[in-house]
Design brief:
The chain has three helices and 30 strands. It has 514 residues and is an alpha+beta fold. The chain has two domains: 113 residues, no CATH class; 292 residues, Methylamine Dehydrogenase, Chain H, CATH 2.130.10. The strands form eight sheets. Strands 3-30-29-28 form a four-stranded antiparallel β-sheet, with no helix packed on it. The longest helix is centred in the first third of the chain and has 141 residues.
Length: 514
């Protein structure tokens, strides 16, 4: 563009120079042409010389004025050429801007067309969704009606089921009475071995390698004092019909002990938090631990490897129990106010129950269909694990419930609370059938565990002063007080064969009593 502009300016200058040269040449030619005439005329008309001289001077003045006009015209031409160059540049910029705007307009039109097509498609989809929504509302109305009918039917079936449970409990009481009578007659006749195999009026074969009990010993001597865990131990449990003890502590370890020798058999590792509770399946194959890491851990006891990590709780898991009917089903309680039902074969949660208060302890009933739960608000609740429905509720303690233990015959459930009471409830009616207390007994924490002896005759519970109190269920009196611990006792557990009582304290010490 600059080169084109410069060429126009040079052309104008050349044109001006050429015009000036032409005028000078013309002037010289005219002077040359008129010179003879002037000379001829000057002779005859010498008198007119002054007049012609004046005219020549006037022509000279006019010529100078022409030069000035020519100069001004040249300057105007230069200005006009510069203005033309600027105008041409502006025109080119405008043309470029117009081209860009036309291109943008084309793109906007295309985008508008696409948006119109999308809008039409969305309108069609919305019409389909509205139609489906109308159909779903109609189906929801039908399903709501069906659900109401099902709920009414479920209530009727639950009432019938509770009635059958009461009848079963009455039949079980009759069987227990027959059993007691048979035991007395067999003892009188000297058939002690046969009496050991009599349970609930029938002959039940013992599990492989297990030994059945006749009656539990009242311990009096600390046989072994084990430095089990660092930082405290709150979870202990015996293998079923075995003398092996499983313990879990704040050091994130689960340990297996031989109570006959007081030696450590194995360590189970992999837990990422403190062990707050643990349980063993009835086939003695798996150990399940509740942890402060919000998870449950399942170990294979024979290999010592973690079999499952059960996740789903959003706060620490403080209680766990396994079904007394099947080793497949497990329940857990957490401080996220939920109780979860787990399938160990599948390794995931099958149902979640939302409770009104944080649950500290729980226990399966004998039928494996219901669970007892003890809560911070002091209430004992009974739940259906299939439906998650609350079947019954009773105010068990004035303060938080810390422990729940079911008797071996399934007729009595023991609860312990921060009000330092230990209450016995009839499973059929959830009415208190006994209360155990002691002047020096103080429950140490929200997860202090008490237990019932395998023969259902005694209760053992630890105290904040390090003592262990043993009561007779039939009389409600203290039959023994054990002193060996130097810190608060958090858990007590009787061996399933009734020979050994284990206790654990806040310092991680486990005592084995005989």
């Amino acid at each position: 563009m600059a080169k084109a502009s410069m060429s126009h300016e040079e052309i104008a200058n050349e044109a001006i120079k050429h015009a000036l040269k032409a005028l000078k040449k013309r002037h010289l030619l005219e002077e040359a042409a008129h010179a003879p005439a002037f000379e001829a005329l000057s002779r005859p008309f010498i008198s007119q010389g002054s007049e012609w001289k004046e005219k020549a001077e006037n022509l000279q003045v006019e010529l100078q004025q022409c030069y000035k006009v020519q100069s001004r015209l040249s300057e105007q031409l230069v200005v006009e050429v510069a203005d033309s160059r600027v105008s041409k540049a502006l025109v080119q910029e405008k043309e470029t801007a117009i081209a860009d705007m036309q291109k943008e307009l084309t793109e906007v039109r295309e985008e508008s067309s696409q948006l119109n097509l999308d809008l039409e498609q969305k309108i069609k989809e919305l019409e389909v969704v509205v139609s489906e929504n109308s159909e779903l509302k109609a189906q929801l109305g039908k399903m709501t009606s069906i659900a109401k009918n099902a709920e009414a039917e479920n209530k009727m079936l639950t009432d019938r089921w509770m009635l059958e449970k009461m009848k079963d409990a009455e039949r079980l009481n009759e069987a227990n009475a027959l059993y007691e009578d048979m035991i007395q007659r067999l003892r009188a006749s000297g058939l002690e071995q046969l009496a050991k195999q009599q349970v609930d009026g029938i002959v039940r074969r013992s599990e492989e390698g297990a030994e059945l009990f006749l009656e539990s010993n009242i311990p009096s001597t600390c046989k072994y004092r084990l430095n089990a865990h660092e930082g405290g131990c709150a979870a202990i449990s015996f293998e079923y019909n075995s003398s092996r003890l499983i313990t879990g502590g704040q050091d994130r370890l689960v340990k297996v002990w031989d109570t006959n020798t007081g030696t450590l058999s194995s360590n189970l590792r992999g837990c990422l938090g403190s062990v707050l509770d643990l349980i063993i399946t009835h086939d003695n194959r798996s150990v399940i631990a509740a942890s402060s890491s919000n998870n449950l851990y399942v170990w294979d006891l024979s290999s010592g490897r973690v079999r499952h990590t059960l996740t789903g709780h959003t706060d620490k898991v403080c209680a766990v129990d396994v079904s007394k009917v099947s080793s497949r089903h497990v329940v857990s309680a957490s401080y996220d106010r939920t109780i979860k039902v787990w399938d160990l074969v599948k390794g995931y949660c099958t149902n979640t129950i939302i409770s009104y208060s944080n649950c500290n302890a729980l226990s399966f009933s004998m039928d494996g269909q219901t669970i007892f739960s003890g809560h911070v608000d002091g209430n004992l609740r009974l739940w259906d694990i299939q439906t998650g429905k609350l079947l019954s509720e009773v105010a068990a303690h004035s303060l938080a419930v810390t422990s729940i233990s079911l008797s071996r015959n399934g007729n009595v459930v023991l609860t312990s609370g921060r009000d330092n009471l230990h209450n016995l409830f009839d499973v059929r009616s959830l009415e208190v059938c006994g209360t155990l207390r002691a002047a020096g007994n103080r429950v140490a924490s929200n997860w202090s565990r008490s237990c019932i002896s395998p023969d259902d005759n005694h209760v053992a519970a630890g105290s904040a002063d390090g003592s262990i109190y043993i009561w007779s269920i039939s009389t409600g009196d203290i039959v023994s007080t054990l002193k060996e611990h130097t810190s608060s006792v958090l858990s007590c557990r009787w061996s399933g064969i009734g020979k050994t009582l284990a206790s654990a304290d806040k310092n991680g010490i486990v005592c084995l009593w005989t």
